Every structure is written in C-alpha cells, then in structure tokens.
Amino acid sequence: MYQKIKIFVLAVFIIAGAYATAINVRHVYNFNPSWKVFVGENSAASEKGFDDSNWKSVSLPYAWNEDAAFKVAIHDLPTGIAWYRKHFKLPPSSKNKKVFLEFEGVRQAAQIWINGTKTGIYEDGISAFGIDITPYVISGSDNVIAVRTDNSWGYKEAATGSTFQWNDKNFYANYGGIGKNVKLHVCDKIYQTLPLYSSLHTTGVYLYANQFDIPKRRATLNVASEIKNETARPESVRLKVTVADRSGKTIKSFSGQPIVVQPGKLVVANAAAPLDSLHFWSWGYGYLYTINTILVIDNKEQDLVSTNFGFRKTHFGNGMVELNDRTIQLKGYAQRSTNEWPAVGTDIPAWVSDFSNGMMVESNANLVRWMHVTPWKQDVESCDRVGLIQAMPAGDSEKDVDGRRWEHRLEVMRNAIIYNRNNPSILFYESGNKGISEEHMLQMKAIRDLYDPHGGRVIGSREMLDSKSSEYGGEMLYINKSARQPVWAMEYCRDEALRKYWDEQSYPYHKEGAGPLYKGANASDYNHNQDQFAIEDIRRWDDYYIARPGTGKRVSSGGVNIVFADSNTHFRGEENYRRSGEVDAMRIPKDAFYAHQAMWDGWVDLEKFHTYIIGHWNYADTIVKDISVVSAAPQIELFLNGRSLGVQTAKDAQYDFLHIFPKIKFEKGTLLAISKDAAGKEQSRYSVQTAGAPRQITLKPILNPKGWRADGSDLALIEVEVKDKNGIRCPLANDTIRFSVTGPAEWRGGIAQGKDNFILSQSIPVECGINRVFLRSLPQSGKVQIVASSNNLLPAEITLTTQHVAVNEGLSELAPLPDGALRRGETPTGKSYSTKRIALEVESAAAGANQEMAENSYDDNEMTEWRNDGKISTGWITYTLKRDAVVSEVVMKLTGWRSRSYPLTVSIDGKEVWKGSTPRSLGYVTLPIAPTKGKTITIRLTGDSKEKDAFENMIEVTGTKQLDLYNDPNAANSKGQLRIVEIEFYKTPKSNTTD
Predict the structure, then answer these.
(1) What is the pLDDT of residue 476?
(2) C-alpha to C-alpha distance for 740 and 787, rounded to whole angstroms
(3) Are strands 793-804 and 709-710 parallel, antiparallel or unpaired?
(4) Where are the alpha helices (DSSP H) in 334-399?
C-alpha cells in the first residue's frame, strides 16, 4: 500500500513539473519536512557525504531547545551550536530554472552549505532571508543542505564584532535554531523577485490602494512588481494582475504597459485599476483578496506570484486614528514577538497562531503591539486573517544606540518593511521601544518613505511626545493626550497573577500579593490573585476611557496592556516566567480577559453592553465577601437564588466599569447579575453557579480546522476539565490528571504550578478545574487515542485521526492556511463616539513666577511644564479664556502625577469653585466643579505637596521611577512648587455660554 502511495505522489510531482515546464509557472514548495538535527559542534556536518542517519528527525519549525520553554527562566534557556541537515531532490522540471530558499528566520545566526559549498551567513536573528541556490543544486539528483546555527546570548557579528541590541535576556525568548518556516521557490530565469532584501537585495511585489470611496465601496489597486532578467537577451514584459475575492472568484483583471528588461537588470513593472463592490479589511473582519501578479512574455503567461491583500483606508491626525473613515480608539495588548507556548516555544502551525491572536479579538482588542523585535511572518499573516491591527517594531532593547548597532536597527526596519508591507493589519511601524534621537527618527522615516510611501502607515517610537518627525508616540506606563499626532500607551499595566489563584477565601488560599521581593522591593503587584488582577486592569483602563475621542480637543488614542498571554520572558513574581497575561500560557482565560470584553466592545464608545461577575461561587457556608461585577450599563441588579441583593447605577461604579456589592454571604446556588438600560430594560446577564463534588473528567480537542495533519509539526490542543455530576466545571479542583497516548503522536503536555512547571510531564494538575495539553503529529498518519484518568474521578477518552501529508524527496505542497475570521462584520457606518465635553481655548496665562514658562502648561506638549520658584506665595497661575464660558471641569497633568498630591484651590473670576488635594494618577486628574460662568481661572497652591507613591510597585526593569518627574533628581523632594505639564478646561455640550 505504501509503495502505491509513493508511486502516486511521484506521479503527481512529475505531472506538476511537466505542467510547470509547459507554461513556466513558478512553484513554491513546503521545505519544512524531513530535517535532521544535532545539538553540538561537528565541523564535518557541512560536507555533503556526512552520515547524519543517527541524528534526530524533525519537521520545521523546530527550535532545538523547545523542551525548555517555560521550564526555565528566559536567562536559563539553553544556548549554543546546533546543526540542521536535510536531503532533498528537485523535480525534473526544475532543470535550467532559478531555485531559491526562503527562510522566515533563524535564531540567532546561521551558516548555510548546499552540497558542501558555503552559500551564505545570516546573523540578525530577526529578518527573513533568502538564498539563491541555483548554482549549487543538481536537478533530479540528491542534494543536501546543512545549516549551522548559534543562539548564544553574546553572539557577535562576524565582520564587525558587534553584538545585536535585541539579543536580550529580558525580552527576546531564545528558542534556538530554525524555529520558523522554510520554503523553496522554483521559477523561470525572468521572474518577479522575492521581498528579501537582507540577502538577495530584492524587494518583490508592492501592493497599495488609494482613491478610496468607503460609502461606495471603491478603491484603486496599485501594483509594483520588481522583475529580474537572468536570461542572455532583453525581454519585453507586461505585468498582468488578477483579483480574486474570498470565495476564489476573479472580480478584476488588468495589465500594465510593456517594459523591456535588459539581461542582468532589475526593473519595476506597474499596473493599476479601480475596483468596486469591495469588502474593506477591518477590526475583527479579516477579509482578504488574492492578488495574482503574472508576467506576460510573447503573449504567454509565466511567472505567477500570489499575495493575500486587504483593502483599508487609514488616517492619523487630531490625536486620533481612523480606519475606513471611522475613528477607532486603540485597545489591546503589548505581546512578546515570540508569542510562545509551553514546551513548544514558537514551534507552532499557522492555525495555532490564529487561535491565539483570534482570542485577542475575542476579548475585544483591536491592536497588538509586538514588543522589541519584528514578529515572524506567520503571526503577521495571522493578524491579517483575524482582523487585528498590528504595531510592528524592527529590533530594539530599551534605549537608543549608535554606531554599528544603530545600523543593525536601520537594516532590520528596512528588511521588515519590505517583507511585510503588503499586510493590511500593520498600521504602525515602531522605530524604538524607547525614545530615539530626532536624527535617528528621520532616518527611520526615510526608510518608510522609500519602501512603503503609500501603505497608509505611520512610523514612530515609544515616547517621542515632542518629536517633529515621529508620527505617533506614547509612554510606557502612563496616559498621554494630544491634539496633533496620535498618542497611545505602549504598556499600561505590568501587574502579574497566576491563573491558579482565585482569591484569599478559595483553595489554594493564596494571600493577595504574597511572594518574594523583586530587586529588594515589594513585589505584591506581581503576585496578585485573579480577582485583584482583574480589578487592577479595570482601574488602569479607566484613565484611557475617560480621555477617549469625544472628550475634548486633546485626547488619548488608547493603549495596550502588557501582555496578552503569560510569557517565558522577564518576570517579577514568584514564578520563573511572566504572568501578566489576560490568558495563561496555554491561552486559558483569566477573569481579566472577560473584564476586557466588557470594557472594550466598541470602536470608541461602547456599542454592546456586557456583564461579568469576577470569580466563582463555591465557598464555605461561613464566607462573606464583596462581589465585583464588570459592566458599563446604567443599572446593574444582583440576584442570589432569585432574590435581589440590590441595584447599582452608573454613579455607583468605580472606574466607570466596576460595581462592588459589599458583604454578600455565600449561599449555594446561582449568583446572577443583570445589566439594564436607564428604562430598566435588560441588556445582558451573567451568572455563576455552585458546582458539586468533582465527579468526572472531560476532554475536548481543539484542532486545525483543515484537519490534524500528519506532517510532524501540526499540533492538537486538548482541553481537560474536572466537572461535577451535572457537567458543571469544579472551579476549585486541582486534581492531577494522568494521560496515556497511543498512536502516531508525540506528547508535548502543558503547564501548571509545580516542579519544572510540569513541562513535558504526562501527569499534570488542572487549575481552577481546567487545563490544556499539546500533542504533536508524526510524519505517519493514523488514529491517536488519548485517555485521561485521576483518582476518584470517572476517566475520559477520545480518539483522533491524523491526515496523511504527501512528502516526496523532502518536498511537499504548502499547508492550507486557515480561513479569515469575519466575527465583527464590516466597518460600521456612522460616528463611533458622541461629544462628552467641549474644550475651552486659553488665550493667555499670567503666573506668580517664571512667566516665560507659563505657555508650557497649555501648549499641547507633555515634554514641557510650568513651575513656580519654590515659594508657596508664587504658586499660582491665572488663565484667561478666549471668551466667557460656563466651565464644568478642570483637567490637569501635574509633575509627579503618580506620587504627588498638590493642595490647591481653583477660582473662576475670583470665585472659589474647588478646594482640596489632587488625587494621584497615571497621568491626568479631573476636578469636577459646579458649572460656573467666567473668563479667568486661577489655580493656586495652598501648601507643600505630599509624596506617597500610589503605584509604588510599578517599577521599571532598571528599578527607576522617573518618567513622571522629568528625570529631575530634585523633583521628588521639592517643596513649595506647583508644576503643571498640561491644563485643560471644559464645558458640557448643553451648557449655556456666550460662545
């Protein structure tokens, strides 16, 4: 039977090869199967005839140290030399063709040999790269590729001796070797180039759209394809373009003008045409078209390149971001670019990327900011499919650099833009994880302007609040506002929580905040229970919600929470990995995930109301506790077993979304929260139910939608739960589950708290009644049986089948990609926000001291401030509005905002309207006042400011706390100073004014 299959597969390859020869069509093969790996040095391994029969057989992507993922801390991940080898044979049709290898990336460096000849070196650990192996391969014969990889933390560039800034033990989890996909391209000698500038110095196909008419669903598609002629004669070439919709139907075909390509030369062919009846790519709407670019020579179609592309219109200005003519407040996560999983690291198939990234959208996030380094192509394309906006960095650690290390960053940004500029989900190019010089920002901007001038993307950097060249910015921990460039928080909540811990009253009774010190400081914020972690997320987001579009001239464009999934990177809590995720490392949601669903379901203002009860309802009969309900509805009513426990209205909410019903005594049954509109009509509901004693195990497979592929790299995710006799999950269960597996699959397991984090163990506890484990397919297909058992629980069993994947001489067809997700539908029409308040313009200011600095306090620049001279008597400033108005709010950003409280009075035309001490915050404070008509507003200091850090554990990796003090060493101890960064005055839209 096997021999028949082999003959059939060979026939398919021969037929495909003959077809390709007849019409000169490019063929792209999956080069992931049938590799061999050896960890250690062996210089003879580069030779073609080397005997690698005893080496480990693997399929890519495969990091040789994947077993350590989440088992050890990031700085303890194994490093060193590993060799990869592969035997392959090209189909006969490849004779006299061009043959390229495309590596999506290697960590950290690689040297490559083909048939014993060294063909290239790769060193940056981020970029995709290509190799022209045409001179070294023999068509129809056995060929061998050997790759020597080195993932040393201190790796130095061979030519210069320079290290790479981003090869960092804090941020960039080090999964060594070939941990990304590899493809093989066979094409004719006049061809469209690959977008692999770092090695081939070519730019490939560039697609962009303009002349948008969103209401009429129209846009113009522009195509620019770089063509190279490696024949001996000039060729007249015409570029033909076809556009197919999601169903595969061709909706447009058009061509450009013929051009002549001289031998050995590169030229760019162009074509453009209007399209109508378009579906625009949008948040949660991953609608992609297939754009085929085809070379026509002598009226014969030959080199065809397919690109998935989404049409979307963007605009950045007035402090806001627009997508398809609709303002969107950015909300999402700063996720590590490795996006890793336990025991497999980054060695995952595309559907698992979609599963993870799609969960971000499910939580109502619209943006992922990948951190420090460019994400791999699989995650970039995944965000296209699930409808998730991306901020794409190049490479960075934590600061600006110069010399060769700065050149590295420029080169990686160039490589990343060229490789990813056709992906519609990328809206932001990030030039640095911290502010860079204006000169460096201009250099980055020049790269964007050269290689992606029309893509509808902005380029900027973290911070850069007063930059003249950066097109967006935003700090790491605090809130910023602007009336000019969009600013959004790059990482706004660093707290950590293990999913296992519910609260202090639930097994395993973890005391809130208990854990070791971090660098000698209190680390309670990094050892939260789940309930407090969710509340902290609500508290932090509230600042951005208050300052959203519609709340004045100066607004926040939003922010991203660090991180989405627990990460094998630097940590501050008691575990050896980062637990800041709203889901754990196996993507099981924590309560904070559902809190975000309730807070984020709208483009700006909420468009759908959710209700969520934080925690569970399984306690001892003596327990009395506060119940936290997440909702933005006008009314929330809480019921216990049908009995009302009270109603709270919006004015009772803490942080706009949090309602706390105090001192609820536990009683077995159902706790129900119902959200209602102002008229009392139900909008949504959520309940938690008391579970009975643990009774049974259940298993649920989460599989590749295209089928579990027997390719040696596909994964099956198995969810295991402990339930009571009625099928309700037992939220306090921590039973150890024993797994046995038979059939063609490899056990990879999951993660739990315990020795080595239970990595690779086939006995693993559930936590809060649930866990997940991975199985990896083998290259042989068949039935896989999984049995789960535990003491005193009914066992569970499932049988899965892996699907045969044809591999011939080391080559296979590309695996089918997941379908795009359209869960949120197309971009809604109409405004995404209502006007909550109207900004009042300041005409001038008079100050008690430093008059020349007075304008700094209302100049829309958060890098300037006004301050008095340290005498309480001069601690005043009076603002004159452009016209009389009814003032209802005063909003200020005061230096030392997170730790300093200023005793102030506020007067309008001499009448005192507010007196007290300002609250500490993550940026801005709002002082509500009784609406008062006037033209002059005086802010006066009435005593010394008081220091008490409201966020004392929110420290940097460096241990410093200076961002809110302008790096002024004397700021924390200054007395008698009033220091205003920005001040704003507002009226309500319905106020009667003389405006």
Answers:
(1) 87
(2) 5
(3) parallel
(4) 350-362, 377-386
Q: Can you tell me the distance from the alpha carbon of 512 to that of 374, in angstroms, rounded to the nearest whole number? A: 36
**Tens-place pLDDT, residues 675-694:** 999 999 999 999 999 999 99
**One-letter amino acid identity for 928?**
P
Tokens in use for 987?
Answer: 């009226």
Show the DSSP H helices in 150-293 as ranges.
197-200
Nearest partner of 543 among 465, 655, 653, judged by Cα: 655
Q: d(Cα 277, Cα 218) in Å, to the nearest integer?
A: 6
Q: Are 251 and 245 in contact (CB under 8 A)?
A: yes
Q: Name the residue type at position 367.
A: L
Q: How far apart are CA 732 and CA 770, in angstroms?
A: 10
Neighbours of 918 (CB within 10 A): 18
CA-based nearest residue to 193, from 292, 268, 126, 120 = 268
The Cα–Cα gap between 39 and 219 comes to 52
User: Which has the closest alpha carbon to 204: 274, 293, 119, 121?
Assistant: 293
CA distance 961 to 668: 46
Q: Is 278 helix (H, G, I), strand (E, B) or coil?
A: coil
Q: Is the dihedral of CA 68, 69, 70, 72 positive or negative?
A: positive
CA separation, residue 171 to residues 338, 516, 525, 957 (Å): 9, 21, 20, 11
Instruction: Fill in the DSSP letter of residue 922.
Output: S
Instruction: Report residue 92's pLDDT band, with 50, 70 and 90 as the boundaries.
Output: confident
Here the tokens at position 634 are 């006008």
Distance CA 447, CA 444 (A): 5
Q: Report whether 375 contacts 92 (CB < 8 A).
A: no
Phi, psi of 341 (to 5 degrees): -130, 155
Average pLDDT, the chain: 94
The β-bridge partners of 272 are 222
Mean pLDDT of 75-96: 95
The string of pLDDT tens digits covering residues 775-818 is 999 999 999 999 999 999 999 999 999 999 999 999 999 999 99
Q: How far apart are CA 754 and CA 532, in angstroms?
A: 23
Task: Say if CB 444 and CB 416 are below 8 A apart.
Answer: no
Confidence band of 967 (pLDDT split at 50, 70, 90): low
Residue 178 burial (CB count, 10 A): 27
Q: Measured between alpha carbons, how far is 554 from 842 in angstroms, rounded to an integer? A: 13
Q: Tokens for 831? A: 């405004």
Q: What is the percentage of the chain residues whose pLDDT exceeds 90? A: 91
- Are the C-beta atoms of residues 924 and 481 closer than 8 Å to each other? yes
pLDDT for 944: 87
Q: Supply the angle between the helices 591-600 and 530-546 in degrees, to the nearest 10.
A: 20
pLDDT digits (tens, 9 = 90+) for 342-355: 999 999 999 999 99
Distance CA 873, CA 957 (A): 39
CB-based contacts of 960, cutoff 8 Å, min separation 6: none
The tokens 């490559």 sit on which residue? 112
Q: Can you tell me the mean pLDDT for 981-989?
A: 95
- The pTM of the full predicted model, rounded to 2 decimals, is 0.95
- 700 Ramachandran zone, left/alpha/beta (phi>0; psi -120 to 50): beta
Q: Residue 62 — very low, low, confident or very high, per pLDDT cuts 50/70/90? A: very high
Considering Cα of 177, then 181, then 187, then 189, what sign does the dihedral take? negative
Residue where the block lists tokens 């070196």: 121
Q: Are 985 and 890 in contact (CB under 8 A)?
A: yes
What beta strand segments (E) does 480-623 contain? 558-562, 612-613
Closest CA to 582 of 603, 602, 567, 568: 567
**Which amino acid, one-letter code, is at 447?**
I
